[in-house]
Amino acid sequence: MGLRITERALADSMSHAEDVYPEECCGLLAARGGHVVGAIRVVNSHAGPKEDRYYIDPLVLGEEDRALASRGLGVAGIYHSHPDSPAAPSRFDLDRSFPWYLYVIISVVNGRAVVARAWKTGEGGDAPEEMEILVEAP
Amino acid sequence: MSITLIVPTVFRRHTDDQNEVHLEAGTVKEALDLLVARYPDVGRSIYSSAGRLRNFINVYVNEEDVRYADGEETRLEDGDRVLLVPAVAGGSLEEQPFSPESFARYSRHLIIPEVGVEGQRRLRDAKVLIVGAGGLGTPAATYLAAAGVGKIGLVDFDRVERSNLHRQVLYSEADIGRPKVQVAKRRLESVNPLITIDPLEVRLDSSNALEVVSQYDVVVDGTDNFPTRYLVNDACVLLHRPNVYASIFRFEGQASVFCAKDGPCYRCLYPEPPPAGVVPSCAEGGVLGVLPGIMGAVQASQVVNIILGKGTPLIGRLLLFDSLHSTFETLRLRKAPECPACGENPTIRGLIDYEAFCGVEPGATEFDISPDELKRKLDSGERLVLLDVREPFEYEICHLPGAKLIPLGELRARVNQLDTSDEIVVNCLSGVRSTQGAALLTEVGFRKVRNLAGGLRAWANDVDPTLQIY
Ligand SMILES: [Zn+2]
Ligand SMILES: [Zn+2]
Fold first, then answer.
1. Local structure of A87: helix, strand or coil
2. Which CATH superfamily does the domain covering A2-136 fall into?
3. In which domain, by residue range, is B251 found?
4. Over 70: is that where the pLDDT of A125 sits?
């Protein structure tokens, strides 16, 4: 199973990750009919150092979600960055993940977004399943 | 009640493509039950197999988190909008596995459902800054260290004094004269070797506060003076860190949690500091030794609630404890829309000069006379009237030779016992009451009034070490 995402959405999420380095970035994957068509930047509201943690204010998520709904879109998943660490979910990510969302993780090394990988998480202790990223035009 | 329940768009496939569901429900729980009855697939998504709302799903009624209302029992009104939304979080930092030693040490925590391994991990990963390693800071630090808070920063510039020991039980006789944060680090790391104490032997001020505070998740305000209290508050507002506050005076303590999301800050309660010298400090007014132990422990329990994300912290509430009359009370606090720090149009966008803001610029008053200067005047035989404005029982402990006693509270009524043509030097224990006394005399027409800067404490330090200080 793959994650279909437009080239533009993927590039936007990766430049967001570079912009806030060395902090973690976070944002929403806006989708229509199973295709991710946009990366929506969200403020990292983690109440503490943001180099290795992110938090999305639920009210912000709710607001963005409704705005997307009014345009016939929806939130299909979440992207965030791992500054100077691999693009795989940490135990901490998994413990807080929701099985209904897709997760894109971007590894940023020395300020450059080097790779993005997509994951689907299961229930509780299940190992995450990697999804192939299928880039679509534009 | 006709209400609207809004679910995340990702559930639309389970809800006939609707993300707003209209229901008749009297409480949040009724609304959720009806939602799940109508769309069982949503129920399977939001409830755990044990039938409880999944962790990290938040429910808001008209943008207010129901955890700060009555939880699932929160009552609904016609037209309410109930929002069901996940709190998404994560991070690259790998969590260290729990050592067998941790299981043994924290076993009484691990068996509380509200803590458990997950909660104990949160405590371990938390970073707490404690400003002031004194009466409040030391009990707070002791309990947080024992509870397993992974990193505790302790800010204090002072050294241990004998007069600290009646309440700051972390320190002992042998520590007198040593830097507090160094002694505290050694003691606390022996209480719990699994944690780290950062000893920060600095004076927190506008130049370093943001840098220091930004390294921590939660701040405990254990300060004993207004400039630092406003500094800590403003830094917490600017950096969005919860500020766990307490203050003590004689038999009374108060505590609250400021600067939390949507909660009030210290300036919402006290927009301006009191005029310098009006509110005496513990050094000046005294404090029951056991009181900071209680209030510091209250602060520690608030920090634990915040880190665990459980229970109802003192956000928007002020806890008042009166140890003399044995009463606890809580008052509601409102977030002030006009608050200069956290209001709708904040004017404080950076840290300011807090000494000037609180009007305590040392040496700024021309009334002041230093102990050395007073000594010279007395030695040279200058005719001076020494006026002591403390209470009679304090005067009995020590006083300057020949000093006339008129307690501050009686001064206005007894000014006729003084001569306006005399040069008068007012003194008290630390210089606070005497500043007020000197100001009062000036106000009623005395012209040659000076204030002994730093009071008898400074006199004992600089001139006469044999003076019995308390
Ligand atoms: Zn992550
Ligand atoms: Zn405020």
1. coil
2. Cytidine Deaminase, domain 2 (3.40.140.10)
3. 126-357
4. no
